[in-house]
C-alpha cells in the first residue's frame, strides 16, 4: 500500500480537491458538490494536520475506511477525525459523494479553552464502524450550526468573528456528544450482547488460578476482542453502566483480591504480585481507594 498523502494545511487540502482557496487559512466548510477532482481521479489515503468533521449522505454504494474498518455510506452518518489520523479510500470517487466537511486547524483554537478540551471528545478516535447515525431532526440541528459557521467564515472578519466561530464549533461538539449518548441508549439489543461478551472476557481472565501468565487484561485488549475502539467502548459503558472499561477491570481485580485475601495464606506482597502489581504499595493504594479499607484490615475481618 502506498504511503498516505500528507496534507499540512487547509489551503493544500482545497488544492488537492480541486477547489478554490479557502476564505480563512485555519477553518473551512465545504460541500462535496464543490469538489472538482479531475475525471476518474481516485484518492487512496490522506493524513492531515487538522480536525475533520464530516456528514456523508451518499457514497454511490462505495466504502470508506479509517483505522482498520470499512463503512458503507448507504445512510447519512457523521464522523470525526483528529490530526494525524489516516483516511483510506477504497475505489471511491469524491465527486459522487454528498454531504459537507468542516475542517479546523488546531492553531485556530489557540488561546481558547476548546483548544485543550477538544481532545476530551472521545469520538475523534472512534473507528469508522462507530460513526454517528443521525435522525432527520438531528441532522437538521447539525446543519443549522454548520450553516452558521459557513456564513461567519465567508463574511468579513470583525472583532466578533473568531469568538462566534469557536462558540459554534463548541455547540456542534456538544450536540454530537448528546447524539452519541442517544445512540448508546437506543442500541439496547446490541449493547446488551456486548456487555455479556465483556463479562465473559472478564470471567475468563479473572477465573484463572493465577494471572501471572496471562496478566490483567488491558482496556486495549478487551476493546480488540469486542472489535471496538477503546474510547468508544469506555464511552458506551459509561452511559450504560456508569463506569468506564478501566473501572470494570478494577472491579474484577478487587473481587479477585478479596477472594485471595479471604481464602489463602498468601502475603499481601504475594497477592499483589499475582494480580500483576510490580509494587505492593500500588495494590494497597488501589484496594483502599476502591473499598475504603486496607488489604490488611480486610483480611483481619475474616480472622
TrEMBL record:
Provenance organism: Sphingobacterium lactis
PANTHER family given in the database record: ARAC-FAMILY TRANSCRIPTIONAL REGULATOR (PTHR43280), TRANSCRIPTIONAL REGULATORY PROTEIN (PTHR43280:SF32)
All copies of domain HTH araC/xylS-type, residue ranges: 196-301
Keyword terms, alphabetized: DNA-binding, Transcription, Transcription regulation
An annotated Gene Ontology molecular function: sequence-specific DNA binding
Coiled coil: none
SUPFAM superfamilies in the cross-refs: Homeodomain-like
Pfam family, one: HTH_18
Highest taxon of the lineage: Bacteria
SMART domains hit by this protein: HTH_ARAC
Protein's recorded name: Helix-turn-helix domain-containing protein
Amino acid at each position: 500500500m502506498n504511503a498516505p498523502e500528507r496534507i499540512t494545511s487547509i489551503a493544500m487540502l482545497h488544492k488537492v480537491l480541486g477547489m478554490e482557496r479557502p476564505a480563512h487559512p485555519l477553518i473551512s466548510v465545504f460541500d462535496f458538490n464543490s469538489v472538482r477532482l479531475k475525471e476518474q481521479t481516485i484518492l487512496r489515503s490522506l493524513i492531515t494536520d487538522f480536525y475533520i468533521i464530516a456528514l456523508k449522505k451518499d457514497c454511490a454504494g462505495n466504502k470508506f475506511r479509517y483505522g482498520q474498518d470499512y463503512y458503507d455510506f448507504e445512510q447519512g452518518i457523521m464522523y470525526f477525525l483528529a490530526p494525524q489520523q489516516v483516511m483510506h479510500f477504497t475505489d471511491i470517487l469524491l465527486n459522487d459523494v454528498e454531504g459537507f466537511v468542516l475542517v479546523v486547524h488546531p492553531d485556530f483554537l489557540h488561546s481558547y479553552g476548546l483548544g485543550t478540551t477538544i481532545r476530551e471528545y472521545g469520538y475523534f478516535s472512534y473507528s469508522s464502524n462507530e460513526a454517528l447515525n443521525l435522525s432527520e431532526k438531528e441532522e437538521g440541528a447539525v446543519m443549522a450550526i454548520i450553516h452558521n459557521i459557513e456564513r461567519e467564515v465567508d463574511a468579513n472578519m470583525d472583532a466578533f468573528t473568531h469568538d462566534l466561530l469557536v462558540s459554534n464549533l463548541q455547540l456542534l461538539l456538544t450536540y454530537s456528544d448528546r447524539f452519541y449518548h442517544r445512540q448508546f441508549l437506543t442500541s439496547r439489543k446490541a449493547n446488551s450482547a456486548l456487555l455479556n461478551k465483556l463479562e465473559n472476557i472478564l470471567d475468563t481472565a479473572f477465573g484463572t488460578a493465577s494471572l501471572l501468565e496471562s496478566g490483567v487484561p488491558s482496556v486495549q485488549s478487551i476493546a480488540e476482542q469486542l472489535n471496538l475502539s477503546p474510547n468508544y467502548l469506555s464511552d458506551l459503558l459509561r452511559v450504560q453502566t456508569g463506569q468506564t472499561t478501566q473501572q470494570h477491570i478494577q472491579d474484577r481485580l478487587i473481587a479477585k483480591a478479596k477472594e485471595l485475601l479471604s481464602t489463602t495464606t498468601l502475603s499481601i506482597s504475594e497477592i499483589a504480585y499475582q494480580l500483576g502489581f510490580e509494587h505492593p504499595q500500588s495494590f494497597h493504594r488501589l484496594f483502599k481507594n476502591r473499598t475504603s479499607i486496607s488489604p490488611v484490615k480486610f483480611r483481619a475481618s475474616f480472622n
